[in-house]
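[Solved] Which block belongs to which protein?

Original post:
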Amino acid sequence: MSRHFYSCPLRWSDMDAFGHVNNAVFISYLEEARIDFMFRLAPGDGSPSFSGGSVVARHEIDYKRPLVHRHEPVTIESWVTKINAASLTIAYEIKDEGQVYVRASTVVVPYDLAAGRPRRITEEERMYLLKYLDDDATGTNKSAEDAEDKDALAA
């Protein structure tokens, strides 16, 4: 399985009164990474894939550590955990240098803007997404994640 890597700069305005990146800002970070990932297939080679539109059906976010402003960007890794006929699930980790700040997932539904309704994933899109499909299709390594959570709580 491949992962998509997106380098996301932090802005001073992303911080809240407590001195760390506001929880709502992480949704924007995920959006930037998701758009970069999904539109890699479409515009450059003339393919209409994903360019017709998509909607977010669901977000899940686990905040692991506070992220404070700095000049270096964070890395957002994205991969696919599920492909259905008319939706897909993208998983993410926002991290740097071994620190995971956020683990998240988004259910995305391809959307036909002209018809005003959801549409099925095309074969071309499916082939692209399969390159990023998680090998065990669970999205994360639960034992490693659980151990990290215990370490973070103990600190």
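(Second protein starts here: sequence line, then its structure tokens.)
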Amino acid sequence: MIAREWKCRVPDIHSEGFTAYLYETGIKDSSTTPGFRGAQIFRRSLAGKLELTLITYWDNLESIEAFAGTDISQARLYPEDEVYELEPELSVQHYEVIEHQFSAEQRG
């Protein structure tokens, strides 16, 4: 399994709207691509901005290419990104997943 990591920043005022938009674009498009295994979104506050990290999980590099195009090292961006004053990283990172176990038990 391969993990694909992409990061971006948006001003705090766009945090909720952009997160919903990210689901409607990147997550929705990814999830309809054969070989997609799942996704996680992480966020953290910076000075006046929110940083988001999107990690998607894929069967193999060919699956990622079906989603991202032939140059899988480039981020896939969307026309409406500028509405959210998006500061995207233009490249993505790929990692071989060697452990992916989560506990079924939830801790409070």
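Accepted answer:
You had them paired correctly. Confirming on the second one: Residues 15-31 form the longest helix (17 residues).
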